[in-house]
Fold this sequence. Notes:
With 156 residues, the chain is of the alpha/beta class.
Amino acid sequence: MKVELWAIGKTSEKYLETGIEIFEKRLRNYLPFSFLILPDVRIKTSDSTRLKQEEGKMVLAKVNPDDYLVLLDEQGREPTSTGLADWMQRRLSASDRRLIFLIGGAFGFSPDVYARANEQLALSKLTFSHQMVRLFFLEQLYRAMTILKNEPYHNG
């Protein structure tokens, strides 16, 4: 199974890009992984509902019926690092074509994206910018893989 992280819009901070590149490279030693940046939706509106709808249409056009879609959402289940590792082990043995983690735009997800999602995960009860979540999630995904391989990173 291929694992993908999707995010809407480019990362604007160099320090985040550097960290993302480090963990993206590390993850590829453990599984088929890719990080996809979806373009910002270019509409002239201050209506966050309409913006979420347009972002949702773009996302849903790329998701296949046999993909397992996980929203990184503040309302999702909040696993521990070892819990995420156990969950990853179960998901990686499933028959889905792709396991897609989705980070929404600044205003979150449309109702249609919530309806299509198979699951929601939260990284914390704290709120992080949607750009910082990219780095934090990649580090946690890498940590989960090292836990599964009994490597010392988790406790180091």
